[in-house]
Amino acid sequence: MKTFILLFSAVIATTFVSCDKGDLEIKKMNRGDGTWTIESVRTEQYDSVGQSVINSNTVDNAGEFIFFRTGTLNALFDEHLLVVSMVDTSGTAVYTGGAYYDDNRVKVAATSPLDGVWTVDDNGRRKQQWSIYEVGTDGYLDRKMIMVLKKK
């Protein structure tokens, strides 16, 4: 009986330990209604050697992300349905696509201006900060975007 209890405990512990962190993170994003306000998007343009910021721009209340529990056609890779609503000078544009979340990166594939692989800098339950980097043809940092999301 003691062997059975030990074996059963080991199976339960393995189940909890083997859970993919990316799965837990996407559940954090689509929890409740899954709506996150894009509190701000800051764009920094760098000099020719990627050392100093030569221009920066911050857009507040840029729109929102809506994360769904439903998988996309890429559900095999655990990509979840995503809707991005962006506010710009011509009004509100809506983009659909998917989001794949691994341990510390989010790949947004929604044909929006926010499309790309983002690094999750701050991973809170109610507020998050993501950043994305673009390198020029010369190999130096060209542009960085920092996005702050807040759970609605």
Question: What topology emerges from the helices and strands here?
Answer:
Layout: H1 2-17, H2 21-30, E1 35-46, E2 53-71, E3 80-88, E4 91-101, E5 105-109, E6 116-123, E7 127-135, E8 141-151
Antiparallel strand pairs: 1-2, 1-8, 2-3, 3-4, 4-5, 5-6, 6-7, 7-8
Defining traits:
152 residues, alpha+beta, Lipocalin, 8-stranded antiparallel beta barrel, 2 helices, 8 strands, 55% strand, globular
Task: Write up what this structure looks like.
This protein has one domain: Calycin beta-barrel core domain (Lipocalin, Beta Barrel), CATH 2.40.128.20. The protein is 17% helix and 55% strand. The protein has helices at 2-17, 21-30, and strands at residues 35-46, 53-71, 80-88, 91-101, 105-109, 116-123, 127-135, 141-151. With 152 residues, the chain is α+β, with helices and mostly antiparallel strands.
Give the name of the CATH superfamily. Calycin beta-barrel core domain
| Domain module count | 1
Q: Provide the structure class.
A: alpha+beta
Low-confidence parts: 10-19
CATH fold-level name: Lipocalin
Main sheet, how many strands, which sense, barrel? 8 strands, antiparallel, barrel
Assign the CATH architecture: Beta Barrel
Please give the CATH class.
Mainly Beta
Task: Give the overall shape, derived from the CA principal axes.
Answer: globular
Whole-angstrom Rg: 19 Å
Q: Helix proportion of residues, in percent?
A: 10-25%
Head-to-tail CA distance between termini = 50 Å
